[in-house]
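Lecture 7, part 2: worked example. A protein chain together with glutamic acid.
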Amino acid sequence: MPPVFRFAPSPNGHLHLGHAYSALLNFDAARQSGGRFLLRIENIDAARCRPEFETAACQDLAWLGISWEKPVRRQSEHLGDYRAAVEKLAAMGLIYPAFESRAEIAGRVARSEAHAPWPRDPDGTPLYPGAATSLSPDERTRLLEAGAPYALRLDMAAACARAGKLSWTEHGKGPDGETGVVAARPDAWGDVVLARKETPTSYHLSVVIDDALQGVTEVVRGADLFWSTSVHRLLQHLLDLPQPAYRHHRLVLDPDGRKLSKSSGATGIRELRAQGATPADIRRLVVLP
Ligand code: GLU
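Predicted complex, written out as structure tokens:
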């Protein structure tokens, strides 16, 4: 079976050099290995994603000389797949609704941090303080029936106990040089959100479902997602999905050493093109042959 690669941008802005680097790495690797290359549009965030950014991304990729298989998978068109996974996890007793707003959670963490540091996930976000787990079943039912907004969180301790030790194959490198067989540490993320009342999925859940449904065998993506792979491995295990191999690549940084953002005009592919850059110039700028 040929290897299957994918590039999975979120259409919430225009592509920059970092996206070009990731897309070209995937596309080149697929071509060199006789593999397939897929494009996936990660547009579950309805408030920030826009169709015109998807169109622009496709134009930029085509200009770079990248082609992909059709049809393109758009996450917003597959909410049923994610809902089914949430139901499976619910049937296993591994998720629960949490009703606090983001502000309430931040307030609770801040009050606690007045006394001692609060644990944070690998992205630096405070772990969920867990008040919802002490709600009585009656209180939970009352809030659900009252139509209160909620997030569905993974009971991380229960999920880890069920899964036992997990690892993944890393062909790239982690922040501390981790490579080869890397031990997953999903517990470092706490009770992650897997879905919300108004959106039946989350980044972690949909990426795992999509990679499985699209038959992706090689996940090549930025180093900022290295430790997210721990959560992905756990969900793959719980949902009985195959595990791809991973390669986390260096990030393209701005001259000050910061991660590029979608709004950084100077490194936008369209801006560079408008200034007369060629696809070969883009390859040079991101240091690719
Ligand atoms: N949509 C994610 C991003 O734009 C990429 C997710 C992934 O490659 O797993 O950062």
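The first strand starts at residue 4 and ends at 7. The chain has a mean pLDDT of 95. Keep this in mind for problem set question 3.
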